[in-house]
Every structure is written in C-alpha cells, then in structure tokens.
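Reopening this one. Same input as before:
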Amino acid sequence: MTARRVVATGTFDILHPGHLYYLSESKKRGDELWVIVARDANVKHKPRPIVPEEQRRAMIAALKPVDHAILGDPTDMFRPIEEIRPDVITIGFNQYFDEVKLRGQLAERGLRAEVVRIGKYADGDLASSRLIVQRIIEARGGDQRTG
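Same output, byte for byte:
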C-alpha cells in the first residue's frame, strides 16, 4: 500500500502560527506531506518575499509536519504536482485559488487529487505575514537597532 500524499503550497515568507496550523492540518489528510514553496519570481499577487526562496524552503523543511519541502517550478506550477502525484492538495483559507477552476486544471493534466481548503487559524492577529510586518513597522518605526 502506498502512502497517501498531500501537497500544500505557499510563499511562507515570515513563518507564523497560521503557517504551522495550515501545515499541521494538511498533514492530517495523509501520510506524507509535500510542501511546494513559491519561488521569489513567481510571487505576483502580493509584495515580493523578504526572505529568499531557499531560506524559506529550508525553514519549511525543518517543521515537524513536513516530510518534503521543494521549490516550485519557475514556469509551470503544475509540474511538481505532476511529479509528486498527490492524493490531496490543500490550500489555505486566504490563498487566491478558485477551487472549481483548480480542479478543472488538475483534471486536464490527468491529476485526480482531492482539493481541500484549510480553515483560518483562529488564535490571534499575528497569523499573517502582512500583519506581522505592519506591527513591526508600528512598534519599531525608524529604530535601526537590531534584536
């Protein structure tokens, strides 16, 4: 019997509890969690990541729920999915995927993965990279000291 493979995707710029929740909930859907980390050049729907792609991938790979962490393909977001052949693809509550359209695109490529949207992490407002950056700017302003 083969392992039930789950794929989760994301930018994972500044890691926070919402990311860990998303990945932990994704792992519950199968035996093996693969995470595809967006390449810097492919992030177009929000500000470019602060943390370089290889560092983001390494951080994700170090998390307990994650079995494999890879960088996405530079030109075809479905290429890694075709190679992994997951049983389930999870998407975060705030990811800009139309689930019906995604299922159709997967079917066109002969991929029969179940698509599951993971709900929002409910504990606190620091479960968003954007809100963390905003809080840092508000708290530290022009303070150039590190630490």
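So the earlier flakiness isn't reproducible anymore. For the record, Helices lie at 17-27, 53-61, 79-84, 99-108, 129-140.
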